[in-house]
Design a protein that fits this description.
Blueprint: E1 19-21, E2 25-28, H1 35-41, E3 45-46, E4 53-58, H2 61-71, H3 77-94, E5 112-115, H4 119-123, H5 141-153, H6 155-161, H7 163-182
Parallel strand pairs: 2-4, 4-5
Antiparallel strand pairs: 1-2, 1-3
Helix pairs in contact: 3-5
Length: 183
């Protein structure tokens, strides 16, 4: 697999931080941020194209963590708190789905960074291709409320662990909103 950043990241297994490309774009994968949809819809192939622009999508780190907990089948307070504690201890054994993306995503390295929260609007900066259907793995209201309680319990530690992700996310979100209002 072609890695985007290799410096100081020996623990990133799998497809996090990998590059996929076509004739117009390089895309850097951030797990839990619509990567499968983006790769499929844009017909991206593994590898870096040195002659094109580069983009990625990120997500609010706590929403990304909620998606990870859902994927890991944490459906009660006990298992959810245990999972959060493992994430805080060592990124849940360096699981690529919850490792801070700021370890390999730096704003200055990209021509465009979109957010999952504004996916439909931000994706228009990359392609005219319409997404017919996004993944619909939203947890039910009760599970979401339970996740919020657990996240609130650990909010200070999580905010520290994901501090750089939170800063990057807010910068990107504000930049994209300001750029839309200019055009």
């Amino acid at each position: 697999m072609t890695q985007w950043k290799t410096k100081d990241m020996p623990f990133l297994p799998g497809y996090a931080n990998t590059v996929h490309s076509n004739h117009m774009w390089n895309y850097v994968v951030v797990p839990k941020c619509a990567s499968s949809v983006i790769i499929d819809v844009m017909n991206l192939k593994e590898g870096k194209n040195p002659n094109v622009k580069t983009f990625t999508f990120i997500r609010h780190p706590f929403k990304r963590l909620k998606s990870y907990m859902f994927q890991e089948k944490c459906f009660d307070i006990g298992s959810t708190n245990k999972k959060i504690e493992s994430v805080l201890h060592n990124w849940d054994n360096n699981d690529l789905h919850c490792v801070a993306y700021s370890l390999y995503i730096e704003k200055q390295d990209f021509d465009f960074i979109g957010t999952l929260e504004n996916f439909k609007e931000d994706f228009k900066n990359i392609t005219d291709t319409q997404i017919k259907k996004m993944s619909s793995r939203d947890e039910d209201i009760k599970t979401n409320e339970m996740y919020n309680i657990c996240l609130d319990t650990h909010s200070k530690d999580l905010s520290n662990a994901y501090a750089k992700d939170l800063i990057l996310f807010n910068e990107v979100l504000n930049d994209n909103i300001n750029n839309r209002s200019i055009h």
